[in-house]
Amino acid sequence: MPTLFLAIGLAACQGGDLTSPLESELTAAPSFAKSSRFDGDLTDSSPRRGGNGATPDKITDLHVETPTSSSVTLVFSEVGDSKGEPVSYLVRFSEMPFEWGAASPVGQGSCKGVLEGSAVGETLTCGVLDLQAKTSYGFQVASIRSGNGNSGEFFTLSNVATGSTEADPADSNDQDGSGSDTSGGSDAGSDGSSAPGTVLDLDVAETGDTWVRLGFTEVDDGSG
Question: What is the model's pTM?
Answer without folding.
Answer: 0.60
